[in-house]
Amino acid sequence: MKKSYLACLIALSCGAQIPLAYAQQVTETESTDETMEEVVTIGNRAAIQEAMNQQRNAGGIINVLKKDDMGKLQDDSVSDALQRIPGLSVERDQGEGRFIRIRGLAPDLNSVSYNGTMLAAPEAGRRAVALDVIPSDLLESIEVSKTLTPDQAAGSLGGNIELKSMTAFDRDGAFYSLTTDLGYNQQASETNPKVSGVLSNTFDLGDKQDVLGVALAASYHDRSFTTDNVETGGNWDLDEPGLEEFEYRAYSVNRERTGLALNIDLRPDDQQSYYLRTLYSEFADSEIRQGLIAEFADPLTAGTQSAGELVRELKDRKETQEIQAIVLGTKHQFGDWTVQLEGGRSEANETQPFAIGGAQFKQEFDDGLGYRGQQRLQLIAPDQAYQTSGYELDEVEVSDAYTEETENNIKLDVAYDLLHRDFQATLKSGVKLSQREKTAREDIFIYEDFADLGVSGLTLDDYRGADVDYGLAQFGPGIQADALWQMLAPLDRAAFRDDVESAIASYGIDEDISAAYLMADIQLGNWQIITGARYEHDERNAQGMRYDDATGSFTAVTDSYSNARWLPSLVTRYDINDTTILRMAYSTGMVRPNFEQLRPSYYLENDDGDLKAEFGNPDLAPLTSSNFDFGIEHYDETLGVISAIAFYKDIKNFVYEADVAGRPGYEDFDEAETYINGDDAYVYGLELNYVHQVKGFNSWLDNFLFSSNLTFTDSEATVDWLDDGVLLTRDIPLPSQSDTTANLAIGYETADLSLRLAANYKSKYLVELGDIEDSRYDAYEDDNMTVDFSAKWLLSDAISLSFAANNITDEPFYVYTGSRRYNTQYEQYGRSYTLGLQITNW
């Protein structure tokens, strides 16, 4: 059967703006393992109406992306697909989506789960799951919950992203599909192969038919690309004003994504089921970064020149992230009772073995160094800057890092269906026990004073590589990684270990969480009401290391924390008439501070009588929010829809980095950098969705359809600091919050051809506070809009060809300090093209 993009885009009325994807909203009380009907259609009105009815029957606000169209715009990873949902935007790395923001809240304030089990995060210091690790091919659907109900585990303020695996019962009988893609990156002139496959079938057991289901999905993607970068890192003196240093960076990157999912279901009858869900995903990122750093003797304005130093730097590393998950469960119905027992485990790790974090060759200049331009700064330097003989080997930093996180859980849910002459209700309760462990280790080695070590190769002449291919300016020669490794090999690595930095970078945190909830889902006339409360109790233990510079001593540090909270919610909908629905919700959310903020590592320095410290804060309180949603949806006879949802979040215990010197307990400190809970913060906004199918012309014009969504948000938080004993404050927007996000898509479909042009936009947002006391140094990511195109041609019921063009406008990535004229980071990625072939049930 042919799958229609037309039905998909009309279904976007539920809130999903995705690549011609099927979108739906489902009642939040549905079990996560309930079979979801596959929307397969050839574009007829019945299929469109079915998608719209799924939204009408929803109890809360949930957006769902279906597998079949998750990658139509080459949204190869989960993060790239999710950016097209209203209120969601993506934080990128090297041009690819990595972390997801929901309704203006940073990725660490949202949660990600796999079939009900919270996913572990591979990165040190973070709770946010890097969703570019997970290929979208492994999933049957993705659900984004924006209203929180008591049966959902705490861990988010913005919402939860639920990754649902495919099962053999999602389709009738045997199903198999093979997809091959060949991509091309214009900037790197590289071709990038990808292959993915799905195989599923149901089997008979004894005299029972179709009771055992087995589904297997696999994916492999090899992508090579380059990135041209110029950045200052915020090194501006805005009082002069002038630039202190900036850097060219030329990245050469290879990324391999490998994914595998095996899922087994046993359904002996309609009253009982047993299931196994598994996930394995690996993301191997090999990066060579050539750098050219200009450090000026005095802050300079554009076009002026002074003395300074040029540094040629190499970074060479391979970083591998793995995410694994397994869920084993069973569900039974006994009359009006339903019992579900489930256990899950998730593991994630990040490995970066013996990487060159920075190999530096330096050259001094008495004059002639400067820059010109604003966003794309260009170096002014003598010809000697591009010759190897003047650069002397100064330092090589090597690191060996490993991070691991595990999450184990078991939960029991019991539901009772109550039927009364005046109403019907489902009463539900449950308990959940979970354990989470995060450990991080990093060994850092600093090699220097090479002449004293008897090293003969002391200039860049001995390590010269080819001239760097850099599209923004003249770069000059690169550095050979192999030659550096050969030089370091005879040296005793242990003698160069930085014991202080290595100790501070290593820590361990354990969390035990006990939870229980009570909930009722009531249908009363035109009303549907979901209400109840969740109780969560935390026990946390943290281990780290304290270093005292004055005594040169290391001391093991341990800390414990206990916390308990009730999280109530009330989610409702009211059918005003057959075409108009009103939605209202109140819910509460909670997020634990991230591991970087909680770790008890402590560095104490006595700098000529000035006492300075840098440390984490294991006693941070969780962030909590009170969430309010109000929305209305209207359906018309032309199969269009218009909807609006307003939301408000009142956030307490906002966490930020601060200098607490002079405050109680730190009266004698000159500097004491740590993390603290701040005053209240808030975020509010409005999500608008509009879908229109062209009709009535009785011509080719009836094949057009338009879909769009637009989200406005605003936020405010307060930070404070001491100045000569006086507590001062200033208001800031929440980090990662864009005032405006938008999606617009124009589609054209016939029986055999589907075309789509889509644009994704997000306005500027605060990246980080450069100086807590001075807003001029705050770093902002600039407005960003990407345009993508896709086409699919059905050659037969079994074979289709596809083409996609991404980043058609070659949109750069730009971060600035305070004002757009002060570069913090500028990157350019180029356009990408993909040609694909899919064969299904041949």
TrEMBL record:
Query: Transmembrane segments in this chain: where?
Result: none
Query: What cellular component terms from Gene Ontology apply here?
Result: cell outer membrane
In terms of Gene3D superfamilies, this protein maps to: TonB-dependent receptor, beta-barrel domain, TonB-dependent receptor, plug domain
Q: Which residues form the TonB-dependent receptor-like beta-barrel domain?
A: 358-808
Q: Where is it located? A: Cell outer membrane
Keyword list, A-Z = Cell outer membrane, Membrane, Receptor, Signal, TonB box, Transmembrane, Transmembrane beta strand, Transport
State the source organism's domain of life. Bacteria
* All copies of domain TonB-dependent receptor plug, residue ranges: 55-159
**Signal peptide feature range:** 1-23
Predominant location: membrane
Q: Give any Pfam family that matches.
A: TonB_dep_Rec_b-barrel
**In what way does this protein cross or attach to the membrane?**
Multi-pass membrane protein
| Database matches in SUPFAM superfamilies | Porins (SSF56935)
Record InterPro entries: Beta-barrel_TonB (IPR000531), Beta-barrel_TonB_sf (IPR036942), Plug_dom (IPR012910), Plug_dom_sf (IPR037066), TonB-dep_rcpt-like (IPR039426), TonB_rcpt_bac (IPR010104)
Record family assignment:
Belongs to the TonB-dependent receptor family.
This chain's protein is named TonB-dependent receptor
Q: Which source organism?
A: Pseudidiomarina sediminum
